[in-house]
Amino acid sequence: MLKEQLEDIEIQLLLEGIHRYYGFDFRNYALASIKRRIWNIIRAEGLTTISGLQEKVLHHPECMERFLCSLSVNVTTMFRDPNFFLTFRQKVVPILRTYPFIRIWHAGCSTGEEVYSLAILLHEEGLYHRCRLYATDINEMVLKKAKAGIYPLDAMQDYTQQYLQAGGKKAFSEYYTAAYDHAIFSSCLKENMVFSQHNLATDNSFNEFHIIFCRNVLIYFNKILQERVINLFHESLVPFGILGLGRQETLRFTPHERDYEELEGGEKLYRRIR
Q: Does position 72 have pLDDT exceeding 80, yes or no?
């Protein structure tokens, strides 16, 4: 028990030091999840203790860069949970047709696969020309990958299946060019995208949006940070705007639960009603 308490104290000191020195706030990330990832980083750095990692992170910025890459969760695919995108196409697109201009925020966009997925969907529905997609993440390195729009070619077979299940209307290969072992996505998809660094734990709203996607990010936060982020999204959504969450995420038991209605049972697409 004492060993566990000491470990928790070391983690708190590590995260407090990172917050004070670098400005990245991981203090309200879910403890069990962040603890596992910290120990993976310790082993990768050839260290044996959390305190040893703290010393290295604070005195060596290049170690902090590796820490940030390892700690931020960058698992995503194109058209992840195809039914979510199919429901978006069926239930949300008709609403968007009534807007002259559409602002969309992908919060925690990681390497950008879902940003391109939505761009493709909106293009097929004839709406992309009046959209602006703001894609943000805490991790500058993954944002560079997202902006490049280059993904492993061997993933395209799975992405094609998910695209079709999501109601895709064309040959998925029309949207990228194969080059060696990579798929380079069309530059026309990038025209209305803006990529920028944003920290959900500390940064504020930067615009008013009709759509906000934050999928499979909140599950890594504790209740305090989850409520902070949901409040941030509420402040950032226009009346009757749409919030899209991940399969394991919900607005239930949050202060804003009654401010939204679910568009389709189980697909985690919520419309702000007040």
A: no
pTM for the whole structure: 0.91
Asked if residue 43 and residue 148 are part of one domain, the reply reads: no
**pLDDT for 73:** 63
Tokens 């934050």 — which residue?
214
Angle at 98 between CA 234 and CA 265, to 5 degrees: 55
Find the DSSP H helices in 72-150. 82-87, 93-96, 113-124, 140-148
Whole-number Å distance between alpha carbons of 185 and 70: 26
Burial of 205 (0-12, 13-18, 19+ CB in 10 A): middle
Domain that holds residue 129: 82-272
Closest CA to 72 of 18, 140, 7, 133: 140
Residues 159 and 37 in one domain: no
**By CB neighbour count within 10 A (0-12 exposed, 13-18 middle, 19+ buried), where does 45 fall?**
middle
